[in-house]
């Protein structure tokens, strides 16, 4: 939990996000402590992906303030365009990695190049160093032997493990997962969850995970937030949320998915 000595690494303060006339987040407040592993659960369309996309600076917002690893930016005036400079946005983005439901690997690059490219281009890392690091990460996700393959030659589970290695190559302080196993055949879910489980043991890494894998959420999260209609309706330790949910909406949701 956050306190005065350990300021949160992520903080949404009164963030309002609209798409046209649809208000997805209305004065949204949410903070995550450094190293904390937080899972967002909730019905489809409740705004979970929007929260992650704002953190990744993929979406501007209309009002409020976002702070990430000590860098803040404000949005005001309802225009829905980024007010921060590109440099400022990059400062924020460099702290965050994101893994999407649909892997999003570069199809024309080998596995190794997929992992090497961003550290070389964005961080200016020497190619040899980036390759050594990429191989280490590919070993960690169990895919070093596939380094010269192209994404199309891999299973969905393997592609997602490459996507995780690629996100880690940027040495993010915050790692975001948006339904990382939802697009996978059931028999491939386990291998991806194993990699995420290993990362959840990394003390320094802050993780924000959106998933429908409730058993997994219970196992790896420090905190579970039940999200409904753009608000955190209820949050707490996994034992509390899954074991004795207080809000009717949480109970209804859990009984529909468990
Ligand atoms: P979740 O991830 O919880 O399913 P989302 O954050 O994707 O929810 O979506 C929240 C709401 O915002 C939904 O009503 C969705 O239709 C809407 N929305 C999301 N992205 C866009 C967009 N680019 N344009 C318009 N509406 C959007
Ligand atoms: Mg979503």
Automatic annotation (TrEMBL):
Q: What is the topology of this protein in the membrane according to its UniProt annotation?
A: Peripheral membrane protein
**GO terms, molecular function:** ATP binding
What Pfam family does this protein match (any one)?
ABC_tran
Q: Its domain of life? A: Bacteria
Alphabetical keyword list = Amino-acid transport, ATP-binding, Cell membrane, Membrane, Nucleotide-binding, Transport
Localization in the cell? Cell membrane
Cross-referenced InterPro entries: AAA+_ATPase (IPR003593), ABC_ATPase_HisP-typ (IPR030679), ABC_transporter-like_ATP-bd (IPR003439), ABC_transporter-like_CS (IPR017871), Ectoine_EhuA (IPR014343), MetN_ABC_transporter-like (IPR050086), P-loop_NTPase (IPR027417)
- Domain ABC transporter span(s) in chain numbering: 10-254
Q: Note whether Disulfide bond occurs among the keywords.
A: no
Q: Which family does it belong to?
A: Belongs to the ABC transporter superfamily.
Q: This protein is called what?
A: Polar amino acid transport system ATP-binding protein
Source organism per UniProt: Rhizobium viscosum (Arthrobacter viscosus)
């Amino acid at each position: 939990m956050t306190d005065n000595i350990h300021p949160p690494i992520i903080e949404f303060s009164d963030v309002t996000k609209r798409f046209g006339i649809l208000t997805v987040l209305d004065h949204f407040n949410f903070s995550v402590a450094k190293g904390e592993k937080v899972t967002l659960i909730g019905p489809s369309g409740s705004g979970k992906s929007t929260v992650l996309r704002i953190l990744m600076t993929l979406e501007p917002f209309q009002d409020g303030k976002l702070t990430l690893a000590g860098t803040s930016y404000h949005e005001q005036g309802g225009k829905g365009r980024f007010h921060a400079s590109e440099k400022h946005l990059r400062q924020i983005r460099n702290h965050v990695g994101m893994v999407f439901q649909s892997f999003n690997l570069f199809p024309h690059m080998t596995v190794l190049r997929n992992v090497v490219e961003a550290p070389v281009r964005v961080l200016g890392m020497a190619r040899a160093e980036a390759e050594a690091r990429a191989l280490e990460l590919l070993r960690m996700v169990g895919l070093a032997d596939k380094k010269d393959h192209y994404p199309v030659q891999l299973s969905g589970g393997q592609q997602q493990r490459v996507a995780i290695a690629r996100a880690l190559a940027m040495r993010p302080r915050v790692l975001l997962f948006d339904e990382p196993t939802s697009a996978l055949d059931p028999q491939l879910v386990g291998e991806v969850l194993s990699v995420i489980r290993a990362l959840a043991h990394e003390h320094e890494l802050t993780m924000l995970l959106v998933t429908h894998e409730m058993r997994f959420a219970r196992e790896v999260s420090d905190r579970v937030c039940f999200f409904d209609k753009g608000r955190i309706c209820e949050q707490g330790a996994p034992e509390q949320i899954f074991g004795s949910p207080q809000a009717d909406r949480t109970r209804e949701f859990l009984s529909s998915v468990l």
